[in-house]
Write a structure and sequence with these properties.
33 strands, 16 helices, 583 residues
Length: 583
């Protein structure tokens, strides 16, 4: 890694406050061979393909201009003799496709910007361990918040590798900032408001995040970073985890009504700092310009993160929509039972389709790797508590997984199974065989709930929209790469599935009207009334088909968890322990 011939990489990024259409990048390279490659990284989940927005790419050397050849969409070959090379280019920020903006997507406004990562930096394939310095040229008065390492020069930041560089977004602008320490480790909360002021209870907002961090650090023993940044953006939605930061949408309008409005999402993405970024699935790749291959372990990475996002907030005494762990679990089980795809397909099968797959990959079904994983994690937790008489819990599995899989080696499903077995000294293989590796079997919730003296009562109830029955609108449309509008049916027993429509059908018209986009299809759905007949003309490979849909209401499971008769003292103790969320 520390060869004298290793490339030396320095970036200059310039933002002109009078030009909000993009930013300029200069990449200074020393110790370069006569021919090398440059690439734009693809994010494993949200590959925004920012190679499409590279403009004015130029290469110069002391001996003259270099030669650029495009080898792939996100890969360039550079011929530039001389050893010292300057690559310059401009990133044009595409106009927003929707309001609010996704929090992980870059933006540039007169008062702030989010950039960096795969949306800004080219990197050197084959030299991913080369360190880099980034000099920022931002408007006067703009503050900077980023997980990149600061230097003695406040405008210069350091990345020890391309992996860190690409996974450290930069939030800059007229920011509001708060800081706190947990076990001596600094944490910064940065908030970019669309205006100049904030209109929410910042004390409650900051205090809740500090309590969340404290609980996560208590669980694992110490944080896995030198410092951490929460990058909040007004007028944005969603969130994305990074190696020592997180970018989150937190509209002021929502925070003004509830300073805890973004807390669950914050907890989820922050927990990924351990479970996904350190405890990594075996297939998960570092920085790469190629598409991420399927990842079988996402049910654990996402599902157990959902599990702990809820649990850590409860341990911290912070407000949640579900008043108790029982009410939370009732909702999870009801969602699972109401969606046949979640039991039809195994957790690993659904995980493999979570990244870069077509929306109709499961046919006329839908499934959630987050929901499957959270429920499997909950059931494993009950088994561990019962088998160890309350001495151990899922906490011990997470710590063991961190110890074994936070290095270069990633985990497989068998590794999770082995970790659970080691903690509880029990046979967990039936659960993994039935639900993780194979599908087609509904989780026997009562079998696991009985371990702590509980059972689930399930009944069907009509889904309501306020005071009136909700209509069965369980169908979507999506634009395929060939610009064809196609259907996605999430349940073959929906009114759409029973009308003979299938996921992947090409939509031609609805009630004789040509439909060309998802917004048009969504507008049509919102306009239908109960009992109305909707005639959907679709095209298949060799024929057309007309689905005559009678739109009406539908029923979904409702779950009530109750105490079993004759509960034992051990079950009562384990139940109380679980309800408190004890580790």
């Amino acid at each position: 890694r520390f060869s004298r011939d290793q490339p030396i990489v320095r970036y200059d990024v310039r933002i002109d406050p009078d030009d909000t259409s993009g930013w300029h990048v200069e990449m200074h390279l020393d110790n370069m061979p006569d021919t090398f490659r440059l690439a734009m990284a693809a994010h494993p989940i949200y590959d925004d393909r920012y190679w499409r927005y590279v403009e004015d790419l130029r290469v110069t050397t002391p001996a003259g201009a270099g030669v650029i050849a495009r080898e792939d969409s996100a890969l360039w070959r550079i011929a530039a003799p001389g050893g010292d090379v300057t690559v310059s280019y401009r990133i044009r920020v595409p106009p927003p496709s929707a309001i609010p903006r996704a929090a992980w997507r870059p933006y540039l406004s007169p008062t702030g910007a989010l950039f960096g990562g795969p949306h800004t930096f080219m990197y050197l394939p084959g030299s991913e361990l080369a360190p880099a310095y980034v000099r920022l040229h931002v408007p006067a008065g703009w503050a900077v918040a980023t997980g990149l390492t600061p230097t003695a020069d406040s405008s210069v930041f350091f990345a020890p590798s391309a992996d860190v560089l690409i996974d450290s977004p930069i939030l800059t602008g007229k920011l509001h900032r708060w800081m706190f320490d947990v076990d001596g480790v600094p944490h910064t909360i940065a908030y970019w408001p669309a205006g100049t002021t904030i209109s929410f209870d910042s004390v409650a907002f900051v205090s809740s995040i500090q309590k969340l961090v404290r609980e996560a650090v208590t669980l694992f023993g110490r944080p896995p970073y030198r410092e951490y940044f929460f990058l909040f953006e007004d007028e944005a939605y969603g969130a994305l985890e990074h190696i020592n930061s997180v970018s989150l949408g937190a509209p002021q309008a929502a925070l003004a009504g509830d300073p805890y409005a973004s807390l669950e999402e914050t907890a989820h993405e922050y927990f990924h700092t351990w479970n996904l970024l350190r405890i990594r699935p075996a297939e998960y790749r570092s920085v790469d310009y190629r598409t991420q291959p399927p990842v079988a372990g996402l049910w654990f990475s996402e599902g157990l993160t959902m599990f702990y996002a809820d649990l850590l907030l409860r341990r911290a005494g912070l407000p949640l929509p579900d008043s108790t762990r029982i009410s939370h679990l009732e909702g999870l089980i009801a969602r699972y039972l109401g969606n046949p795809g979640d039991s039809r397909f195994s957790a690993e099968a659904v995980s493999r389709l979570a990244y870069n797959s077509r929306p109709d990959a499961l046919g006329d079904y839908d499934a959630s790797t987050h929901l499957q994983g959270e429920l499997l994690g909950t059931m494993m937790d009950l088994v561990i508590r019962a088998e160890t008489q309350g001495e151990h819990s899922m906490d011990d599995v997470m710590r063991l997984m961190l110890e074994r899989f936070s290095g270069e080696k990633g985990f497989l499903g068998a590794d999770v199974e082995a970790a659970v077995h080691e903690v509880c000294s029990c046979d967990i293989s039936p659960m993994f065989e039935k639900h993780v590796r194979s599908g087609g079997t509904v989780i026997d919730f009562d079998h696991y709930l009985a371990l702590i003296g509980l059972r689930a009562r399930v009944r069907l109830e009509r889904v309501m929209d306020g005071n009136v029955p909700a209509l069965d609108l369980r169908v979507w449309a999506w634009q395929s790469p060939d610009s064809i509008l196609r259907l996605t049916v999430s349940d073959p027993q929906s009114v759409w599935g029973r009308a003979g429509l299938h996921s992947g059908d090409r939509i031609v018209s609805v009630n004789g009207r040509t439909i060309r986009s998802w917004p048009e299809f969504r507008t049509m759905l919102r306009s239908v009334r109960s009992g109305e007949h909707v005639r959907v003309l679709v095209q298949r490979d060799t024929s057309s088909y007309v689905g005559n849909v009678v739109v009406r209401g539908y029923a979904q499971p409702v779950v009530t968890i109750e105490v079993v008769p004759g509960i034992t003292e051990l079950q009562r103790r384990l139940q109380a322990q679980w309800l408190r969320g004890d580790g």
